[in-house]
């Protein structure tokens, strides 16, 4: 592209894209000295987060193992050096157990929502020298969805998780307790309820004509092979899977993905090549010569959309949501401190402390030019969160030195602050925090403006 | 016992005040260095010398970062103005964006404002009242800040000098601690003084890495928090209040 006009046109179109994306645009990793490739998109600033539903919470409360697994899942400490340096955890890609559709890493992704687990960055020894990213999957309902991996290579979730930690992300060999806990956590993540799905995976209730026709088409034998149908692999009565691998013309054998909550699992196929159900249906129509009419395709998409729905898929991120997660993690400390489990206390303190530090940065400091007002409220919020971080550190030091009574006292004080004082201070500062959409947008617009000056000049 | 403690406190108060006075020349030198850098920056920028202007910016920045122990607490408004981010229209980061980001040298207005602010501060420093409490607060705050994540490239991400910022911050912490607090703390609790010194040395060792991506960030965070905890314990032994972690929080 040598023509200055072409360059200008490209720049203008790029700016148009930025302008049109508006609030949807997240802020990428940038700067000259970052661990991750520049322009990596982690989508950590998103204000709408997937809602996480736990099986055990319906029956009462999450167990210690589930909370420990959740904590480890969100801790960079269990992964290798690069991930730890970058603050990347399992939860970075699987936000609240759901695939991060905006995640993009240059040279490790070919599009947002996929990632090459055998790429060069996190474990050079696992590098297969081929850019072959796979879609970042949702973990909702994982306990029903064996085998694991996009190609279904692992029958055991435990083995699969260990492989991700040790081989794909170069982490140290995790203790059996940590792997068991992560397995317990992943197996506890439930599908979002879908009132449209009745017994046997049939559509029930207020079902449209298009959805009914789509449901019939879904079970209809393929015209050129009567032994095949969509429902033959996506078995409605079995969470829309058959636990098998198939070649559906996408370049190999890949396991059947569930269709439950799939409305929120784009991109689709093992490598995330398709953005929509329309593209997926078009692919099957071509690959299996189904002879679908445009009307048939619309009906199938209506059916898939009805099956893939879920109640309240996202929730607004705020201090309350973060504190709830931290309070769940605190339950790990409530067990580990009395038992003097130094390793678990250290892991919990590092993970919770980092969450609290990140929460602190949601309340901009007084040097931040993109926020005005609420200076005292922000100071008090930041100060209270920093105090919590230090209380946790004192707990860690006390447990490491065998001073369990001191640790218990400190933990009581910490829980006391977490119960009332800190939530009140955070609520008081929320209007001037990055949880406020306007403040959020102003802050990231300011950051983008500064970083664009750099990119436009080079 | 109370009488004894009060005796210790008043004895410490005198020693701490003397320490704060010994800190003053370092503070004047740090801001003086930042001022000289700002003046050089204006000259180099006016001459269209981008490389020279960048070098002068880095030099000015070093003096400023060494002085953050006191700037955050004693001149908070000026600190917010000079160190404003991300899209500041004045101060270090406004100039950084132009020099290192856009590659332009038209920074005279911003550089002149920076020079004026630094000059005003430099003049005031000889008469500014320095309280040991304020300097301990600043030391603890800066120590905590050093442990913040740098995964995004840190505070000076456009110039790529965030690691220099951290090293200069820690140099400032080291000097403030050993000039003001170490001797009286050693008298009160020798082991604690030794612990603080060891933890400062650990921070220095961590930031001796060749570049930012090679800094062990989790270790840095842990070390910074352990040092703040030690400084909080030290405050009691020194007869001071526990340091607050945000300016204006007290």
What's the β-strand tally of chain B? 0
So what's the overall shape of chain B?
globular
Uncertain runs of chain B with pLDDT below 50, 5 residues or more? 1-5
* Sheet with most strands of chain B: none
Helix content of chain B: over 70%
Protein chain pair with the most extensive contact, residues per chain: A-B, 50 and 52 residues
Structural class of chain A: mainly alpha
- The topology string of helices and strands of chain B comes to HHHHHHHHHH
| Count of helical stretches of chain B | 10
Assembly classification: heterodimer
Order of helices and strands of chain A: HEHHHHEEEEHHHHEEHHEHHHHH
Provide a descriptive summary of the structure in words.
The complex is a heterodimer of chains A (458) and B (250). With 458 residues, chain A is mostly helical. Helix content of chain A is 48%, strand content 4%. Chain A has 16 helices and eight strands. Chain A has helices spanning 4-21, 55-59, 64-73, 81-86, 90-93, 157-168, 176-188, 209-219, 230-233, 277-287, 294-307, 319-336, 342-360, 375-400, 404-429, 437-457; strands at 48-50, 94-95, 98-99, 114-115, 134-135, 245-246, 254-255, 314-316. In chain A, the strands form four sheets. A two-stranded antiparallel sheet of chain A has the order 1-8. A two-stranded antiparallel sheet of chain A has the order 2-3. In chain A, a hairpin with a 2-residue loop joins strand 2 (94-95) and strand 3. The longest helix of chain A has 26 residues, at 375-400. Chain A is globular and about 70 Å long. The two termini of chain A are 15 Å apart. The relative contact order of chain A is 0.10. Mean pLDDT of chain A is 91; it is low at 1-27. With 250 residues, chain B is an all-alpha fold. Chain B is globular and about 55 Å long. The model of chain B is unreliable at 1-5 (pLDDT under 50). The interface between A and B is large, with 50 and 52 residues.
């Amino acid at each position: 592209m040598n023509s200055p006009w072409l360059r200008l046109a490209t720049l203008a179109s790029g700016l148009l894209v930025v302008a049109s994306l508006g609030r949807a645009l997240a802020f990428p990793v940038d700067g000259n000295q970052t661990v991750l490739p520049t322009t990596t998109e982690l989508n950590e600033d998103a204000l709408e987060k997937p809602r996480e539903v736990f099986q055990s919470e319906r029956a009462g409360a999450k167990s210690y193992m589930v909370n420990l697994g959740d904590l480890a899942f969100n801790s960079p400490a269990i992964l290798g050096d690069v991930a730890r340096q970058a603050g990347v955890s399992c939860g970075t890609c699987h936000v609240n157990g759901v695939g991060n559709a905006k995640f993009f890493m240059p040279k490790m992704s070919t599009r947002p929502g996929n990632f090459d687990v055998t790429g060069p960055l996190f474990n050079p020894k696992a590098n297969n020298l081929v850019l072959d990213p796979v879609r970042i999957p949702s973990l909702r309902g994982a306990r029903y969805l064996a085998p694991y991996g996009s190609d279904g290579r692992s029958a055991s979730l435990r083995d699969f998780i260990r492989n991700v930690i040790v081989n794909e992300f170069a982490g140290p060999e995790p203790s059996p307790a940590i792997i068991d806990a992560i397995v317990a956590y992943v197996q506890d993540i439930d599908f979002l309820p879908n009132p449209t799905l009745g017994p046997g995976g049939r559509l029930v209730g207020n079902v449209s004509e298009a959805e009914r026709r789509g449901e019939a088409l879904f079970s209809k034998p393929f015209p050129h092979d009567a032994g095949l149908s969509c429902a033959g692999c996506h078995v409605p009565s079995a969470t829309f899977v058959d636990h098998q691998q198939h070649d559906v013309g996408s370049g190999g054998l890949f396991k059947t993905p569930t269709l439950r909550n799939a409305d929120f699992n784009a991109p689709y196929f093992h490598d995330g090549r398709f953005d929509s159900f329309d593209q997926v249906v078009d692919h099957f129509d071509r690959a299996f010569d189904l002879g679908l009419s445009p009307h048939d395709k619309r009906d199938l998409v209506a059916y898939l959309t009805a099956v893939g729905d879920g109640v309240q898929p996202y929730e607004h991120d705020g201090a309350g949501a973060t504190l709830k997660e931290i309070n769940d993690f605190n339950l790990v400390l409530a067990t580990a401190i009395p038992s003097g489990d130094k390793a678990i206390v250290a892991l919990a303190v590092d993970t919770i402390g980092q969450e609290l530090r990140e929460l602190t940065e949601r309340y901009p400091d007084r040097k931040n030019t993109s926020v005005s007002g609420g200076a005292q409220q922000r100071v008090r919020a930041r100060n209270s969160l920093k105090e919590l971080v230090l209380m946790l550190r004192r707990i860690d030091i006390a447990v490491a030195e065998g001073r369990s009574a001191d640790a218990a006292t400190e933990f009581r004080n910490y829980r006391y602050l977490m119960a009332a004082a800190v939530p009140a201070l955070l609520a008081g500062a929320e209007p001037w925090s990055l949880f406020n959409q306007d403040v959020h947008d102003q802050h990231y617009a300011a950051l983008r403006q500064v970083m664009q000056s750099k990119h436009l000049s080079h | 016992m109370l009488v004894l403690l009060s005796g210790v406190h008043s004895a410490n108060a005198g020693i701490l005040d003397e320490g704060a006075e010994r800190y003053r020349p370092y503070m004047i030198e740090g801001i003086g260095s930042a001022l000289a850098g700002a003046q050089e920056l204006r000259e180099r920028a006016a001459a269209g010398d981008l490389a020279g202007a960048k070098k002068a910016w880095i030099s000015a920045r070093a003096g400023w970062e060494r002085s953050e122990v006191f700037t955050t607490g004693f001149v908070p408004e000026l600190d917010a103005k000079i160190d404003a981010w991300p899209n500041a229209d004045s101060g270090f980061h406004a100039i950084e964006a132009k020099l290192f980001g856009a590659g332009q040298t038209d920074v005279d207005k911003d550089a002149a404002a920076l020079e004026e602010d630094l000059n005003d501060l430099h003049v005031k420093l000889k008469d500014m009242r320095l309280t040991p409490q304020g300097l301990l607060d600043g030391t603890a705050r800066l120590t905590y800040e050093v442990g913040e994540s740098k995964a995004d490239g840190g505070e000076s991400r456009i110039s790529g000098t965030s690691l220099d910022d951290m090293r200069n911050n820690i140099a400032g912490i080291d000097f403030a601690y050993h000039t003001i607090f170490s001797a009286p703390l050693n008298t009160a609790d020798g082991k604690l003084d030794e612990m603080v010194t060891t933890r400062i040395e650990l921070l220095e060792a961590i930031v001796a890495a060749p570049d930012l991506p090679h800094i062990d960030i989790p270790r840095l965070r842990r070390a910074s928090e352990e040092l703040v905890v030690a400084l909080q314990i030290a405050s009691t032994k020194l007869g001071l209040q526990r340091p607050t972690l945000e300016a204006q929080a007290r």
